[in-house]
Amino acid sequence: QLGDWHWVHLPIIIGCCFLGLLWQGWHCKSLLEARLNPSLEGKEWVVSGYITDLPQCDDHHCAFTFKLGSLSANKNNMKVRLSWYGVKQVLHVGQAWKLSVRLKRPLGTLNPGTFDFEAWCWQHHISAKGAVNNRANNKFLGIVTGYALPRWRERIIKTCQDLLEGEKLGGVITALNLGWTQTIPYAHREVVQRTGTAHLLAISGLHVGMVAGLVGWLIGWIWSLIPMVTRYWPAPTVAAFAAIIAALMYSEMAGFGCSTQRACVMCALLLLPKIAHRHMSVKTALFRAVWLVLLLDPCVVMSGGFWLSFSAVFVLVYAYYAQNTARWILHLQTQWICLIGLLPLSIWYFQQISLVGVLANLIAIPIVGFFILPLVLLGTALILWQPFLAKIAFIGALKILAVLGLLLSWLSQQNWAVWEYSFTHWWEFILVGSGCALIIFSRKTFRWVGILGLIPLILPNLFPLKVGQFKLNVLDVGQGLATIITTRHHTLVYDTGAKFSSAFDCGQQIVIPRLLLEKIRQLDVLVVSHGDNDHAGGALAILTRVPVKKFYTTAIERFQNASLNKVNTLSKITPPTACNAGTHWTWDGVNFEFLHPPKDLLFKSNNQSCVLKVSSPFGSVLFPGDIEKKAEQWLCENNLSQLASTIVIIPHHGSKTSSTSDFIKAVNPQVAIVSSGYRNRYRHPSPLVVDRYRDCGARLLNTAETGAMSFTLGSRAAWDLYREHHQEFWRVAPSRIK
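Above: the chain sequence. Below: its structure as tokens.
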């Protein structure tokens, strides 16, 4: 408390901070030592271990976390993330296996403003990722001890899925009762995200508090009916103990995620003093909960759930004390406080603000808290003993969910439902965060000053390019291609990366966030070089989410069929146009021209790729798509003088079927860029192709090693290789990626 502050506390605070740094350093050192040794990558190993979490399975494969014994060059046991394609056995948490695996370091796509797989692996203590080889020596070894609650959770989830098979909202039930969100369709995820109600699907204070309260009340009531025992252990004391145990068990069954940890720890901290007939304020419990959660795992600070969960409680609690009135916090203004208080973090993690979130939460929170969640928890309690009664409870919850879902779906489909924005500079985050703090915590006379801090949210790009300059962004989409070209007033996207599943679409998860980071809200031109998934998979997400004025591609039939069968689109799909050689235009002093394919000559497959050249007085870039030797030969014969470029995106990711010596000589690039996945199965780029480009004097860059790249071609050239400029201690350095 501020009133209790004394200078004698300063050395104690400094000492605690020092001890905290020591604890974090020791923790991180142990994680660094457990990393996979690079010398072990790509080799086949027979390892023994056990599954530590619920496997995520579909029709083709299962993904799971596996704790394995030490390898020859790794002293400590490791947790690895494995994928098992074509698995025939049913996998469960707690199973021990002997498996044949190939491992590699946990490198994923690395782009500003998007999901960082490497950071996620560090936070979850995962030292490697890999695949299981289907070999005869793969052997089930039995069940390990210590996984009773996770196995019970898995059993409940499986039973729940069987009872609700065929129900569209069945995945929401498993999310509400035990935090299993893997079966929620992407369309439903998008609805709750656009309406700001995604927090209702996370196991947090509402769920843990309800379970702890019900168990505590029930045990206390039963205990009070036995006079002999109440003389020694009062009913309130026993009820508090029972509530704490119930909160711990339920949190463990729900996966013990970050928000669940916060709710469980705060519940225990508030109930433990009652056993000793004392009282602890919510503010004190909040700060002690932060301390305990960080003590359990210092890496939790890398989780967005940590910051969002604790910030939400902090904002609500301290806004309540600042206003000194309960009515202000309990009614309509509660949602406004959450909206303003979490606005900077919402932009930081999700690049958007839900403008309908206040209305959606005012309706959804009471319905979920008073009707849906009690029915779901009742069904969960009965599911293993009375499945019929459990199904009745679940069906009742589903009926209410269906009505609520219609309302939330309608709100999410409004064009004004969200305001999309992304912080480009650090000062924007500080300015907006300070403005939000002033609005919430200051007196009414100073709140207008806080409103001034929100001005960056409506400002365009304050540092536009000059006429004749252009910027090339090569995004890291793994084994694929996605690039963005911007001039002073215009934007072009060339290729969009792959769509791997409904849950991961490079157009949605990588390209659109990068457009928001550049404060781009519409595209003047979208070019999809050809119809292969690694180049065209993300296009539909962009076409349905971002206004596109002109769309060029050679895969016209693919997108005409998509426009006829589009579902849940927010805008009309722009009709495709052929990218015929000779088509050209000029933006802000920058020239754009298609060099291939010719209108009167038929090429097939990769050789029909759109070849685009972008040029200005400051330099040029050539985008050849996936063309191979035949198309390269045609270009050298018909457009030889136009091929020379400062930068070239290496054709077909560096495949040996492309990049002939004549083509490289004609282009004569200073920089050659490969867009490929780390240790991809195609072994791109080919060493022979790499040597050809290096022999011509080009600097070779690979997105697998550098992450996303940015090049500004102007009077002063500017480069930004994302991994090189973000070398956190837990991230693999570019020089160590081979």
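The two ends are 53 Å apart (CA to CA).
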